[in-house]
Design a protein that fits this description.
The protein is mainly alpha-helical. The chain has 5 helices and no strands. Helix 2 packs antiparallel against helix 3 and helix 2 runs parallel beside helix 5. The chain is elongated, with a radius of gyration of 17 Å. Its main location: endoplasmic reticulum. InterPro entries: Emc6, EMC6-like. Keywords: Endoplasmic reticulum, Membrane, Transmembrane, Transmembrane helix.
């Protein structure tokens, strides 16, 4: 009987809306952090360390401010949905904007 309660624990449209909002937050912050890294002229591992440091801060803010410290209320797999799952897509967006901004500021001057 516990399995039946687990199936109906979440209302799927609300979970999808929360996931979309989370995706938007991660995408926009990756663009902002990528822009900052490009303008600051970070290259190589420094840029990736900058990304990871900002990723930890943004994920912590989402977990504690937006989710109130309890992400399992808003997402099915809680911490995985908030901090781990969108990491690769966000990293790709970050690298794209980072290299674009670096090229615009430092290569073409």
């Amino acid at each position: 009987m516990a399995d039946t309660n687990e199936i109906y624990k979440y209302f799927e449209p609300t979970v999808q809306q929360n996931t979309l909002a989370l995706s938007n937050i991660h995408t926009l912050t990756s663009w902002g952090v990528g822009t900052a890294a490009g303008i600051l002229g970070l290259t190589g591992w420094n840029g990736f360390i900058f990304f990871l440091a900002n990723w930890v801060v943004i994920s912590a803010l989402i977990l504690f401010v937006k989710c109130g410290g309890n992400p399992s209320v808003h997402f099915k797999s809680s911490f995985m949905d908030v901090a781990v799952s969108p990491l690769l897509n966000t990293l790709l967006s970050y690298v794209l904007v980072w290299t674009l901004m670096y090229a615009l500021v430092y290569v073409y001057d």
